[in-house]
Fold Xaa-Pro dipeptidyl-peptidase.
Amino acid sequence: MKINQFAQIHVDVKQALAELQTIGLFTAGATNKPLATNLAHFLHSCFPEAATKSGQDEAIAKLLLDEQTTVSDFLVAPTALSAAQFYNLALQLLGFEAGTDFDLADPLKFMRSSQLAFDATDPVDNTTLLTNIYLLLTTHTKLGLTFLDDLANRGFFASYTGPRPLFFNGKAQAVFDTRNLIKEVVYVEAPLDTDQDGQRDLLATTIFRPRVTDDLKIPALYTANPYFKGINNVDAMLHDVDQELAVKTATVKSTVTPQKPLPAPRQVAGQANQTEKTATDLSSYALNDYMLARGFASVYAGGIGTRDSGGIRTCGTVEETISTIAIIEWLNGKRRAFTNRTDNIEIKASWCNGNVAMTGKSYLGTLATAAATTGVPGLKTIIAEAAISSWYDYYRDNGLVVAPVDCQGEDTDVLAELCFSRQKDAADYAKVKQVFADELKQLQVGQDRTTGNYNDFWDERNYRNQAANVKADVVLVHGLNDWNVKPRNAEKMWQALKQTKNQRKLILHQGQHIYINNMPSLDFTDMMNLWLSYELYDVANNAPAVLPNVTIQDNLQPETWHGQHDWAPTDRKRRLYHFTPASLTLDEPTDAAFVTFKDDNRRLFDQHEQNETRWLHDFIAEPTTYQAQQFRLKTAPLTQPLVIDGNIVVTLQAAVDQPTGMLSVLVVDYGKGQRLGEVPAIIERNGYQLDPAGKTDNLVEFKLQAATDFKLITRGHINLQNRVSRSTSLPVEPGSFHTVNFELQPTHFQLAAGHQLGVIVYASDMGMTVRPQTVANYRLDLNACQLSVPFTKH
Amino acid sequence: MKINQFAQIHVDVKQALAELQTIGLFTAGATNKPLATNLAHFLHSCFPEAATKSGQDEAIAKLLLDEQTTVSDFLVAPTALSAAQFYNLALQLLGFEAGTDFDLADPLKFMRSSQLAFDATDPVDNTTLLTNIYLLLTTHTKLGLTFLDDLANRGFFASYTGPRPLFFNGKAQAVFDTRNLIKEVVYVEAPLDTDQDGQRDLLATTIFRPRVTDDLKIPALYTANPYFKGINNVDAMLHDVDQELAVKTATVKSTVTPQKPLPAPRQVAGQANQTEKTATDLSSYALNDYMLARGFASVYAGGIGTRDSGGIRTCGTVEETISTIAIIEWLNGKRRAFTNRTDNIEIKASWCNGNVAMTGKSYLGTLATAAATTGVPGLKTIIAEAAISSWYDYYRDNGLVVAPVDCQGEDTDVLAELCFSRQKDAADYAKVKQVFADELKQLQVGQDRTTGNYNDFWDERNYRNQAANVKADVVLVHGLNDWNVKPRNAEKMWQALKQTKNQRKLILHQGQHIYINNMPSLDFTDMMNLWLSYELYDVANNAPAVLPNVTIQDNLQPETWHGQHDWAPTDRKRRLYHFTPASLTLDEPTDAAFVTFKDDNRRLFDQHEQNETRWLHDFIAEPTTYQAQQFRLKTAPLTQPLVIDGNIVVTLQAAVDQPTGMLSVLVVDYGKGQRLGEVPAIIERNGYQLDPAGKTDNLVEFKLQAATDFKLITRGHINLQNRVSRSTSLPVEPGSFHTVNFELQPTHFQLAAGHQLGVIVYASDMGMTVRPQTVANYRLDLNACQLSVPFTKH
């Protein structure tokens, strides 16, 4: 078991003692009291669930200092306290089991192997005891919480009367009662009329916040969530991907819709101090829930076109971004909200200190990114997980329609329909049916599935164009095995942000399209608590320096996270691999060599069970049943491990016997070995407790799986007509060679020594591209093919 | 979509109007008011989340009466209200979507097809409107709750001031606030000293109960849960199943441990009105959580040997049962509990009305069964899901060690160790380590893995021996595909209970070892609410007559549940299938016929990937790679469907070339078809809301899967040495024929017409029996082999 606590701050004695006083655990006089008195006092505080000394003594009596000594014995007749004894005690308090997790004879061995911080001073003097206790309170339990969080969940702060919010070790603590939250809805008036009803669109906004008794103003974690009010079934609307590639003619230009004048704001008819609509929504994002008890409100909004709001869905437009930031502007006192949609009674976010962070994964993180690129005041930071930074990189690649994994046939129109939850209210839907139908038609034109080219439509949806406007500090989180929102979205945003002066952090994990807040091996929640305390409460915790710039999960060693300075910098050293008929090699080829493969993947896919996952597996496996459908090369077994970091660039020279063609590339780690699962396994259902009120999440961890023969590293696709650029099409002359040069999805991947780096070149990709029926024959000029691999060291 | 609401009671007009008054929705004068007034009043009550008329009007404005008419239009200018209009409205209120789920042109078509109750009176007069509203409140939403539950979750009862508890349609309603529950721990003194420390074992007991402001006493749902305080890792303790069968000599007799005198009860040193220890446990059972807001306390206890309690784990003994019922005795005022383990301050369950129901699945349901067989006063009913009724039927079968699925190598000693969570507290464990080690040794002797015979040890653990003592009404729930706790446990208990006068109900689903409280197709939670209101609050709701005796889920049609009078009665008609070399047939064989197969399954299993699930699949599949290892027969395709109901009995005459032998039998439905998954799919994560405070469970449903070629119906195993009985061993003479006759696991299974009934005879079963290395050759005398199949009609 390895525990990485990047957010644990190591402080000096003075600071430790001061903070122990802040949480009411010790008084200033503690340094002058006998060690055993302080230890006894601390231990009695470790069982807040027991209201009486008897109950606390019973709990203490269950602890051993060593094989021979119970803690109760020691407290009755104190002697010197060894470091080993203290850490035996500490580990038991942290939920580790003597004999099972650690050995009472050598607790420091376990502290070291699990990477828990400790002070080896031996014997433990009184000051060391107090600083050890401080350190212990900031150390993670077996279930992935700091010990102080665990104590708080068991009632440590139940009778706390000190200042709120409360910060300890730079992080906000659970001193707000979340059992009886204020749950309310307001309607924010956006400067939009997307449903063209002559009134500005009102956006239903859900707020969860603790009841604060004094005049404390608190910040808000805001999640813009288009799925918040439910989704529509879009199965019938998915595009047919059993299509031929088109010979492209022109690129679709934006039809500039004449901008209708924006209706005037509503006339305010009065002011309210209280909202009148109770939110019945259930919260859905564990990080927000965790922060609630720590003095951060949660705000959720579906945005235009979602149920109970005005407007229509437009999938990635500027209007959607304006809808998203309207909520921030209201929280920041710069826009109006009303208590209902009828009476024009204004309600202010008087509870909010004006500081906002946006959180969320996927489309939710995407809207956080969109909002940040406006530079909207009040938005101090975003934590964008698995976020799209350019919609072209979600639905397209190099002039091809390329679907997110498991989303064949989806596109911006389908997603707009999916999220247009106003449709769920029959009479409300009737009013905007036609306007939304027109919008869908416009989306279908603009997204242009025929060419797959980058055009004005996609350019509007490329948030990176406005990266220079970003004023918020940014945390990006992305899965290196995320084939839904592919890693390029994070990488290009990360690079684009370098032009700003803002703080930025990046966390890359080995998962797919998932949250990572609930893993014992990484203190993600603490990291974000530290970050949000710094950003929204201006706590001087030095968060930007404490947290690594880039945190990357190791793909071979479980529970291992590396801090590094950067990811995928453009100046990474590169290895240039050449293609020969026999192998992928660093030696330049000498003889001319040509190979062929055919694209009748659709036929074989149809014959088999039409399962995209299985198809991909069988396509990569050795031996493969798809040998004629691909050209595959491998390096010799590596003599040293190779750590790929960044964008592999592939150069291919290919001819095809058709007037259209595409190339797909897979880069693969070949070699028998155990690998991390791409989906974390549940360690304990509801084992991760978010607050003293008892809200939970599952406790999960990436686990090594049974040994496999290979692992996909990265991939990419290109339309041969787009060999010059993704926005420009050139004709493909059947039989002539054309050269393409393009980036695969960025990665960070360690190949073990003895493994082989493999590359597979083929044409249509059953899970991502269109699936032509026409059989095409491809020829590669190997001498002109290369793989340029950026690498680094751990 | 089909919705089965077995607990929906149809009442007369008078009763409906009276109950509508009880929940404060209408006054007695409503019958004299205009229909539109009543409808408007009702609709305004349907949006309790909106505190103002404006907010409610906005919600109402989203509803359509028909394609042309909004509800708002109607309320402004009322006309006659058609039944179709009312049910369009009703379906929208229930969360069904116009155009997607149902057609506004014919809502009654959807009502019929989904089996929702309705009154077709057309047009709707005022009285019909009121009774329609009553019916609507008791009807399920799309998310599996009654509409009144949905309203309650949205705040309908937030300002309710009437009597608590409140019953509507015979079921308790959510009028208790669960946001700020009393969560407390007491220590019940059991009449046991299983850890031999000279003091009676104290049992930590966790109580969750709503704060009740008046002197109302409430009943308790009690779940005895040995896993409640955590489990130990037992991987290292699993028994090696790569074993030869033993030639049996003697059966293990109980070594009668001299009964030590029970220590005297503790001297009471005082009385407390309040507990002093806060429970920090998180509740884990959704049915209990659901009932909490409805006026039923939840009580959890781990029992002897679990963390924070005294005693040791003994796996299924009388002591474990005594430990289980001690809690009930305390709830019922007949046993003492203390506020802590030190001070001997007594605390009474003064909040409890003395009525207790036990709930839980698997080991939890097992302890409910055990408790019921004591006839303990106060235990009014048990809801035992997937419960063991005899531990022999869990770990053994017909003189063989037969593991629960995925539990090879587990036994009573392993399970005792798994649950002995006192081990987690180092100093506490040190005190009882030796006593528990001795207990494990005794378990290992008594369980006797060498012979697998039924003996005194197992007889003590056969709760059915005491079935005549049961005084509680019993609900049994079991999965017909549960190969962990196999269906025999439910079936034999069901039969044994017939000797008592108690009410009994049985629910059989098509799942594995799962809970079924959260499926839209079955109102299990309502059924249990009706039952528990009847049992624990003495509500005259006629529950025993309202609910079917036996509710069985159809294995072919999704969302279909049948009520029937009994399951597996002994007088079911039977079809006798004979074995011929060519087929399983109803015709008596004429010619002698012998077949052979060999048992080298272990060798093949080791060669392959040692995956038990895949092994079983491949063993049954056609063609099978295990042809030489089995004898397989099928009937001709059935001309009519066949509904098997009860215990298939198999007779085999077999010889083996070894001094030991075993036979395993699989009965299989062969025929291509879609079948229900054995694990319900998640329809909506956290989509099933349990209370107004926002506690949730996933919403799930059994779904039809992609077509498969076969489905396992049932199975059984026998040791050839136990051909006379499971407790008596006879020698196996190599080469001689021996006859065995035994029941397979009971089932209820419909084979479609055109399918074939198959039987597979073999020896060692990789997933369940020991796996001998010695290759054995078996011979069957087909003329003496038969399959006796009980059947019924739907």
About this structure: Chain B touches chain A through 53 residues (CB under 8 Å). Chain B is about 25% helix and 25% strand. Residues 426-447 of chain B form the longest helix (22 residues).
